[in-house]
Structures are given as C-alpha cells and as structure tokens.
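Researcher: I'd like a structural prediction for the single chain below. Treat it as a standalone chain; there are no partners to consider.
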Amino acid sequence: MSETVFTKIIRGEIPCHRVFEDERVFAFLDIAPLAPGHVLVVPKEPAPTLDALSEESAAAIGRVLPRIARAVVAVTGTRDFNVLQNNGAAAHQAVPHVHFHIIPKPAGGGLGIDWPSGRLDGDEGRRLAAEISARLATG
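Model: Treating it as a single chain, here is the predicted structure.
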C-alpha cells in the first residue's frame, strides 16, 4: 500500500490534535470537521479498506471505538452521533487507509445522509444470506 496522509500523521511527520493512541490504534481530530469533536479513529496497520484489515487491528478498533465515542459525547455535550466508515473511492473514501469517523450530531449540524432505501425480495434475501453464510463458513 502506498503511503497516505494518515501514515504520516501516525509517524508524527504531520501534526495533529491526537486524542488517543495505543499499540494498534491512533485517533485524532478531523481538520475538516462536520461538527466540533469530529474524531478519526485509524488503525496503525496501513490497510486500504476494512476487508483488508487484520482481525487483530479490527478487534483493537472495536475495543476503543465505544470509549472514544463516550469521551466525545461527554466533552461536546452532544448525545447523538454517527460512526461512519467508507471503503473505496466510489463509497466516498477520500484517504485509502481504513478509518472510522465519530461525528457528533448537534441540532442543525453534523453528518447529513440521504438514504434511498430499497426493498429486499424474500427469494433474493434467502439466496444472499445463504451465499454470505457459506462464504463465512469457509473462511
């Protein structure tokens, strides 16, 4: 994987407002926040998308996301928030290094989402569930 702005931030080559760091995870304030307290949570492992991330790094992020979210909620006083993670340019991922956004949702601010919901057909749902389950069973 090529170097990204996040690998440079993790190494200290680009300054940031760090809020958390351990052996596997680095978290810092977004420099283009959607709301005050918008934090990026990044694995130190340089994987471009979530499906390329090791189980160890994924577990490390899973352990700290709730803790960081509680801190953001407490400090900002904003009870509602979004956790957002995008994979690939077509899915709006701007930096090809796995990262999670914790975005407070104050009244009239934060993340706006247009969610054009569809409808799951029963036969298609059964087929997809069976295929995904089978893939999970094989590794």
